[in-house]
Amino acid sequence: MSLAPRAVLVHRTTEYEELLARHGTHGQAAFFLSARGRSVDAVRERHERTRRALAEVAGAVPLTWRQTRVERADLDRFLFGPEDVVVVVGQDGLVANAAKYLTGQPVIGIDADPGRNPGVLVRHRPDRARQLLPYAAGTGAAVDELTMVEGVTDDAQRLLALNEIYVGPPGHQTARYTLGLDGTDAPPESQASSGVLVGTGTGATGWLRSLWEQRSSPLALPAPTDARLAWFVREAWPSPTTGTTRVEGLLDAGRGLRLTVESDRLVAFGDGVESDALELTWGQTIHLTASASRLRLVH
């Protein structure tokens, strides 16, 4: 007998909850914020909107389904099942946080605070959950299959991200490495920079775009469902031993970027989550490509 679908509600601790955990009471949190020119009322109002959205979505889960909740900090310890329908209630970035732990489950993005989020990934309001949940569990649900980027090291460590992967120094030092491109006979180039960013069309609405605009790049950034990736080297430094001829480009499907470390220590992390970084040491290589895994985001 097949299991009934399970609705997995992904959420994150609100700023108000973090303030209460740090300061103990509402009054102490209010005093802390007022001393810095902020009002606790606005923070609590956003908290209440988020909690109302979460409660509305939970109440929309069909009675024959199972349901559970997982907080963002616990995603790396949560076991998703093939019968799950994942409902992310919060911000666009929370969808990216959840994406790397999924294996093809449909994802519904619910905007818990309309007007404050761009709504690129959290596309729906809470009152749509009642129709979207059974729709997403069906066989004919329309989804966008969003490209993800992965990095695989020469000792088989793997990192997956929806927006981008950053490879660079953990602090403000200079990253030293050689950079090579798949599908070319040109030798790898030794570089010194503040890091390399490889991202998807979804990431092209965030960090990638800021680099693209900053340097007035002529590259046509990929769309979220495009299999291509874009990559940029940040602040490459020319010297007698380091070059700057490879600082940006596009990677077609099946092509990748190879980075071999020439520093004592570099890190690689995805979607801005530094706490989940791979540590790379001298001589180690990481290969960055489009992943075979896709995020299935429900229309």
TrEMBL record:
InterPro entries: ATP-NAD_kinase_PpnK-typ_C, NAD/diacylglycerol_kinase_sf
This protein's name: Inorganic polyphosphate kinase
Superkingdom of this protein's organism: Bacteria
Leader peptide range in chain numbering: none
